[in-house]
């Protein structure tokens, strides 16, 4: 029977073209109409160090990169050694024949002369393409699609580079054809109803850029930082085409300040950064809250604190996102589960900033930033875009007027009779600095009260399972961990175990009533997250009556479904 899924892992050193090889396989799978979910991890150095790319592909929707791999391709012996413990009977291994690994019992081994073939062609860098040709031949990955992506990607390097790499690809395919295939792994077939053009494949960072364009982004300013830089790369190409402006600022303080300035001028504004940059932005986040400026800060989390693990996965900026400021300052915090969310919640972030006239932090993660996933092609016509509440020109203008919903209409600079200042000093309704106790009390209350409606106004938290049914364990997850929990719970339910999932996307202000209603139906509530302190579990303890069990792990990698299953079983 044909298999419905295949997971291929390629590993080697940074500089050996692991990322390109994985990208080519992912693109060929997507072009074949298959669902794709990729995961890559690479060193902070430009050359050298362990680089790995995993492509999970299937003929049904995917929520995570998978437990382990079916096919492994090692470009050098170190990469093989790192992955040796994951080789189980049935796994297929393709490796460069310059080393002779000890192959475990039951593992299918395919040595390929990657280095030698590349050298014979007079090429320094093409052993990855020899490997790709072999993988294509052995596991039925469409060669024509791979060669097209290869030619398109390397076109900018010159026709000679393209031709040399195509020759390397053929060398690998020829060698593989000579080998006796002993395993049964091959690329699944796409289901007939799936049309390749119903879906697009893009990375989390590109998806955030796309969502922002759909939401009507006018202005973007950012300072480069891994793993957020590709948002700027995407918007640098596409924002000007939509009439918007992009600036590379001199640092993160400048970038958020410029975004707030653009917002004051009536424009939809955004910046993006990662942990260290978010720390630098904390003062201006307070200013945006105080001056009631709509602004979006995308924070693509990586391992911290400080420069930490700059290319690795972690969900450890939650406290910084929710509380990182001085004084009584709040902000809306959203977190994305997958690449589809990166589009739709980038729209949400800009919509909410404009609606509530305050800063919004959109939390993404390095694993999503670098992950390519197939998603249904977004239809901008079906996506609701919100504009800020603007002054109607009637009566006297007060920038911080007390209104029924505590949201004060804004007026763009230059609007007749609407001269005002936006200041970080405490102010009265017309924006004039005022330090009276009563003013500070009233204005603090106004700024917080306008957010009180949000937990009910935002879409309800998704419950995985039947809301009213009792469960032995209820799992709360956020960010990309949700996709891992989905698969773990499906497997546990198949065994008759009573489990439910709760997947908040609005992190702050918290949807407390929904958290508590969920917890009431569960004997034990488990919060799983990739950080050391159990940050969401702590927020839940602080803001709700729930006393969850925390399972917090921080190894620079996402959970696997099997790890979640194990932890749930321990609680039964
Ligand atoms: N023939 C010709 N060129 C090839 C090739 C081939 N067969 N295979 C790959 N290449 C090119 C790629 O096109 C790419 O070129 P580009 O730099 O012009 O885009 C380059 O070689 C690197 O290959 P790629 O596949 O993208 O990456 P890799 O697997 O070799 O790994 C990285 C390199 C990604 C690990 C490394 O370059 C990097 O960026 N590290 C992270 C740095 C970082 O962000 N640090 C954090 C700082 S805080």
Pick out its properties.
globular; 7-stranded mixed sheet; binds coenzyme A; 572 residues
Can you give the helix content as a percent range? 25-40%
Beta strands, count: 20
What's the alpha carbon Rg, rounded to whole Å?
Answer: 26 Å
| Helix and strand composition category | alpha/beta
- Terminal CA distance: 35 Å
Uncertain spans, ≥5 residues at pLDDT below 50? none
Task: Catalogue the ligands.
Answer: coenzyme A
Question: Which word captures the global form?
Answer: globular
Provide structural commentary.
The chain is of the alpha/beta class. The chain is built from 19 helices and 20 strands. Strands 9-8-10-11-13-12-18 form a 7-stranded mixed beta sheet, sandwiched between helices. Helix 1 packs across helix 5 and helix 4 crosses helix 6 (159-178). The longest helix is centred in the first third of the chain and has 20 residues, at 159-178. The chain is globular and about 85 Å long. The model has no long low-confidence stretch (mean pLDDT 96). Coenzyme A is lined by residues 14-20, 42-44, 46, 51, 125-126, 128-129, 154, 157, 161, 165, 226, 310-311.
């Amino acid at each position: 029977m044909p298999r419905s899924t295949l997971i291929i892992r390629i590993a080697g050193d940074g500089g050996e073209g692991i990322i390109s090889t994985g990208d080519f396989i992912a693109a060929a799978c997507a072009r074949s109409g298959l669902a794709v979910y990729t995961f890559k991890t690479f060193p902070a150095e430009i050359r050298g160090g362990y680089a790995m790319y995993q492509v999970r592909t299937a003929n049904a929707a995917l929520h995570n990169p998978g437990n382990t791999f079916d096919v492994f391709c090692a470009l050098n012996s170190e990469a093989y050694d790192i992955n040796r413990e994951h080789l189980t009977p049935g796994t297929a291994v393709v490796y460069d024949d310059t080393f002779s690994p000890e192959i475990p019992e039951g593992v299918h081994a395919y040595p390929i002369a990657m280095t030698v073939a590349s050298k014979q062609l007079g090429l320094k860098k093409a052993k990855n393409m020899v490997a790709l040709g072999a993988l294509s031949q052995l596991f039925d990955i469409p060669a024509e699609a791979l060669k097209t992506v290869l030619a398109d990607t390397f076109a900018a390097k010159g026709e000679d580079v393209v031709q040399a790499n195509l020759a390397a690809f053929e060398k690998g395919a020829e060698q593989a054809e000579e080998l006796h295939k002993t395993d049964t792994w091959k690329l699944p077939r796409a289901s007939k109803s799936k049309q390749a053009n119903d879906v697009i494949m893009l990375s989390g960072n590109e998806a955030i850029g796309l969502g922002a364009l759909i939401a009507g982004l006018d202005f973007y300013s950012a300072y480069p930082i891994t793993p957020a830089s590709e948002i700027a790369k995407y918007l640098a190409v596409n924002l000007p085409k939509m009439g918007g402006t992009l600036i590379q600022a001199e640092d993160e303080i400048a970038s958020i300040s410029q975004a707030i300035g653009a917002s004051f001028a009536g424009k939809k504004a955004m910046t993006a950064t990662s942990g260290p940059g978010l720390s630098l932005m904390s003062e201006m986040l307070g200013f945006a809250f105080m001056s009631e400026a709509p602004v979006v800060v995308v924070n693509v989390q990586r391992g911290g604190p400080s420069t930490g693990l700059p290319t690795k996965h972690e969900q450890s900026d939650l406290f910084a996102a929710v509380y990182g400021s001085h004084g009584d300052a709040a902000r809306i915090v959203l977190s994305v589960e997958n690449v589809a969310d990166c589009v739709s919640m980038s729209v949400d972030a800009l919509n909410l900033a404009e609606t509530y006239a305050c800063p919004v932090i959109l939390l993404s993660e390095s694993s999503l930033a670098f992950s390519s996933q197939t998603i249904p092609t977004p239809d901008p016509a079906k996506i609701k875009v919100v504009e800020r509440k603007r002054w109607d020109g009637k009566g006297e203008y007060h920038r911080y007027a007390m209104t029924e919903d505590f949201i004060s209409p804004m007026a763009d600079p230059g609007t007749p009779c609407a001269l005002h200042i936006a200041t970080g000093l405490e102010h009265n309704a017309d924006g004039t600095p005022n330090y009276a106790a009563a003013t500070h009390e009233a204005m603090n209350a106004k700024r917080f009260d306008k957010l009180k409606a949000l937990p009910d106004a935002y879409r309800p938290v998704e419950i995985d399972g039947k809301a009213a049914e009792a469960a032995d364990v209820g799992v709360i997850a956020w960010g990309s961990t949700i996709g891992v929990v989905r698969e773990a719970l499906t497997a546990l339910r198949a065994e008759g175990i009573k489990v439910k999932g709760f997947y908040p996307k609005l992190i702050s202000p918290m949807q407390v009533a929904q958290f508590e209603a969920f917890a009431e139906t569960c004997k034990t509530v488990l919060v799983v997250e990739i950080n050391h302190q159990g940050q969401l579990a702590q927020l839940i303890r602080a803001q709700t009556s729930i006393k969850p069990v925390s399972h917090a792990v921080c190894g620079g990698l996402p959970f696997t479904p099997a790890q979640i299953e194990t932890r749930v079983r321990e609680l039964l």
